[in-house]
Amino acid sequence: MIDPTMITGAAVGAVTYKAVDHAHAQLKEALQGPHVGIDERILGCLERIEDHFIAQQLAAQQASRSVVLTPGYQTDYLAGDYPYNMIFTPSGCDVIFSIPALGNITATLYPGWNDINLPVGTLIGLATNASATVTLIVREANDTIASSPQFSGQAQAGYDALVSPPTQTNAGSDTLLTFAGPTSSITIQNKSAAPAYFAFDQAASPGSLEIDPGVTVVYTKKAAALHIYTAAAVNINGATTPNIVVTGEL
Questions:
Q1: Among 133, 181, 138, which Cα is nearest to 159's?
Q2: I need a labelling partner for 26 at 20 to 30 A (CA). Which of 51, 60, 182, 214 fits?
Q3: 29 CB contacts (<8 Å, ≥6 apart)?
Q4: What does pTM read for this prediction?
Q5: CA angle 6, 11, 13 (to 5 degrees)
Q6: What is the pLDDT of residues 191-211, one digit of tens each?
Q7: d(Cα 246, Cα 250) in Å, to the nearest integer?
């Protein structure tokens, strides 16, 4: 009679692919012998080994591909059916995710691997006025990289208030908005009838990042100030539309 505790220790305790494969084959061969009395404990061990064997196979599966993003164009960032999706970039860059039923969200990718788990049908691209193409490595797999930054859209409770904000943007020139402290992300919603433009480290102009009418952008960036440009004066926040809504998240 085979001792099920020995089978469990030798087979299920093994963690390498070859060890699990070998133990699995040995147990199947033993159970097929005419002299073995099969009971529920041995069958349970076999099921546990098979589950471990399948898990080892799945963990090894992955698909990687190179994606070149061109300013103004979007492409699928998902190609397979894997639970984890990661993007590698050699240097930080800003991309736009077009998420089904939510719209466009601007996010910052950090140097190295970034865990990006968004729904199937999501598109990734660059702003129309981006200065150059960006090459990324997209990795789809059944495991993740624990050390990589994760983009989940979560921020701390509460908001980072604007300090003495103007009631309207300046017509045809830059408008500076200052936050009480560095933000973790900034939400901008353009509820006017014309495009608005924004920047962080310099004055905004028609050559800056653009927000079309009706679009909401969540920009994951630590910043203490935001620059906005509009061709005509537009209300900032307030209780009436048309306006541009700006909030800073802690």
A1: 181
A2: 60
A3: none
A4: 0.43
A5: 95
A6: 999 999 999 878 999 999 888
A7: 13
